[in-house]
Amino acid sequence: MNVILYLLPIALGLGLLGLAGFLWSLKKGQYDDLEGAALRVLDDDDLPEGERPRRSDDGGA
Amino acid sequence: MSVSPALAAGTPKADRIDYSAFVTPGGDGACRLDLAIDGVTCAACIREIEDGVAGAPGLRAARLNYTTRRLTLQLDADGDPAEAVERLERLGYRAWPFTPSREEALESAQTKDLLTRLGVAAFATMNIMLLSVSVWSGNASDIDPVTRDLFHWISALIAIPAVAYSGQPFFKAAIRSIRAGALGMDVPISLGVLLAVGVSLWETAHSATHAYFDSAVMLLAFLLAGRVLDQAMRKRTRAVAGNLVALRGDTARRIDADGGVTEIPVLAVKAGERIAVRPGDRIAVDGVVEDGTSEIDASLVTGETAHEPVAPGARVHSGTLNVTGALVVRATAAAESSLVAEVNKLLDAALLAKSRYVQIADRAARLYSPVVHATALLTALGWLAFGADPHFAILTAVAVLIITCPCALGLAVPAVQVVVSGALFKAGVLLGAGDGVERIAACDTVVLDKTGTLTTPEARIANRADAPDDLVALAARLAQSSSHPLAKALMLALAREGRDTSPLAGAREEPGRGVLATLDGVEARLGSADFCGAADEAARALAADPDATAIAVALGDRRAVLTLRQTLKDDAAETVDRLERLGLRILVVSGDREGPVSRAAAAVGATEWHAGAKPGDKTALIERLTAEGRRVLMVGDGLNDAPALAAAHASLSPISASHLAQTCADALVIGDRLGPVADAVVLTRRALAVMRQNLWLATLYNLVAVPIAVAGWVTPLVAALAMSGSSIVVTLNALRAQARVRAQAPAPGPATPPRRVPASRTRLEEAAP
Predict the structure, then answer these.
(1) Does B89 reside within a domain?
(2) In sequence order, what are the residues at sequence separation of 6 or more whose Cβ sits closer than 8 angstroms to the Cβ of residue B565?
């Protein structure tokens, strides 16, 4: 059972790493615009200018 | 990307604005400017806006926040944002510099704080659960007591700092409410958490088999999730409301040297300039009255509700509301200083006005917390009376406290509010206050104003050729001083002809009747036919054109009647039909004459209408309906509707409404359609139903769980399962509301054929006592 003596700190350390990640993302403002993030992912900004689909329905609103 | 017509109509061609007041310095030589953007409606807008401004001189980066509709510009230290704003305008977006209000900044910080606490609580919950599951399975098989103690001590080591940090919002609120002599929800929560940790420590020290650390932190995590949701909704409402004030509230009507009126941003107003203030408008700057008499509603500034008369020479303050007459004010101070303060006053006043209503969650809490405490106490006493040892009695009482803790109750209402405010926003309704949902849902009667609500703000003059030209010119200038939708429509129609619409000095409005002024010693009037003494002319004009609305103008003995034709909003009939099918009683009320009102009512399919209603009559009608036990939803936009909006159980205003009407309304309808009114009723009703359902689910859960706890059978495992189970059920139920709402919100189903009943005639006079 001695294995838990170092498994437990590892588990806690991983948990703390997750917490640190969350606090970092919070601080960086990743939760400030949840709706925008959902829409930005649809944007084809990784394609070069010429290959992007035309946005034909810009005025549709 | 369209700009709503209401905003476009008044879009000022302003001078260059000095943005320096809004630019805040940032790191490495850059500075930052926040802009509120109007017209962001779709995913493509994000890209269009960011690409559109990119490359403007001095601009380093631009990022649009889609949730709050705000664009943040990073500029060089000496960069001028004017070019970027101009580009936005060319793209069809209106942009306005914006400083977040102090309250908003505070709420932002609070949300981050709550999220951090939630993160810590969730981390603690997960890790303690990891240990607890091992202990539970070990208890069922053959765990070594030394290992169990070790696991319990490690749990304690995680739980104590986590509770001390994450529990603070609840502990502080509990202390506040005990000091105030009240038992809120926070008292049983704090008591439960602290007792659970305390008892668990004692148990751990005595090598017992059970510890409740997991329940304590899990409880905190779930409750913090509820708080975060609640905060998120309020933050969003405040952000959007703040944008509205920035976009709409801050134009002033400057009187130029040539006598014309230019609508300019308040921020461009300089000391010494003359500002025209119409009745129903908010005074934008501190100043001295130069011309005109009126009454000022300073309730937002001083809290004094009585109107204060002002005459030339009187001082007026920004944020106060001009009630009766048109004024010319000479600004004594530039406006920047007062703008932020005004935003806050507006919002706080709106929130304060609604505080009389006790929200459904608070009502539940009031019933709930005494019962919780009494049950826990009785459990302890009961077990002691039956000869159980004090240790077991206390442990059981703590279990009761934990198991009854309103996890689900804390999530039940906020989760639904977040869901419904998002759905309402998509439907084009901007909720002012959280409890607006409950009040709109409770309404069984709709009172619709005709002008500006059923009809579009635009109108055309039908008998243009019949009226003498000088009287038409007079009408144009008088109309400028009125905030009545009909006068506005006339003014816009005449302005389109290229008429001079500079205001007349000393013009004064009598709400619901008309405007009067003195021109070269002769009295000039514009308003209803009675007000101008032109009843005969009006009757003749209307006999020729029965569908039109007459507006009379008089100069001394000379009179003319202009007939305006209004057009109904496209979806007016459909909306009234939908409202009727929702079981609402519909009344159309207007200050207009019988003919147009009855025809408009018939055209939209409303069976009850009241014509010739003065502002007092509208309020009286609402009070009479309230006395009959009806809950009235008032929809109106004019200055004359404001008292009725305030008197009604709930109220909606189009976004084009006068400031006074907007202040009185619970929610604003965005765009130029009536449809969102019906959507709002559908959505809020569903939301209220889900809230009630959630509260019943929470109650049901307690009915099952409490006897088990009182009997002393609650192990930590049972507590954990019960708590997470009920919270998840309640949250899922809230989400279900949105799914159903979405399916319901678009096109009206052909469930029942539209019902058209001939318009019945109910005159107000008959009903008056």
Answers:
(1) yes
(2) B459, B460, B461, B462, B545, B547, B548, B549
The domain tally of chain B equals 4
Segment holding B187, helix H or strand E: helix B186-205
Query: Does residue B642 surpass a pLDDT of 90?
Result: no
Look at residues B73, B98, B123 and tell me which one is the last residue of a structural domain: B98
Query: Does the structure show a pLDDT above 60 at B126?
Result: yes
pLDDT by residue (tens digit) across B411-423? 777 778 777 877 7
What burial class does residue B80 get, using C-beta atoms within 10 Å of its C-beta: 0-12 exposed, 13-18 middle, 19+ buried?
middle
Residues of A in contact with B421 (CB under 8 A): none
Let me know if residue B188 belongs to a domain.
no
Q: What ipTM was assigned to the predicted interfaces of this complex?
A: 0.78
Residue B594 to chain A, least CA–CA distance (Å): 37
Question: Is B115–A11 a contact, with Cβ atoms under 8 angstroms apart?
Answer: no
Q: Which residues contact B10 (CB under 8 A, 6 or more apart)?
A: B251, B263
What residues of chain A lie within 8 A of the CB of B48, using their CB? 55, 58
- Please check whether residues B438 and B476 belong to one and the same domain: no
* Mean pLDDT of all residues in B211-219: 87
Let me know if residue B605 belongs to a domain.
Answer: yes
Same domain, B483 and B561: yes
> Is B530 a known active-site residue?
no
Amino acid present at B287: G
pLDDT-derived band at B127, boundaries 50, 70, 90: very high
Question: A23 and B119 in contact by Cβ < 8 A?
Answer: yes
The last residue of a domain, from among B98, B120, B143? B98
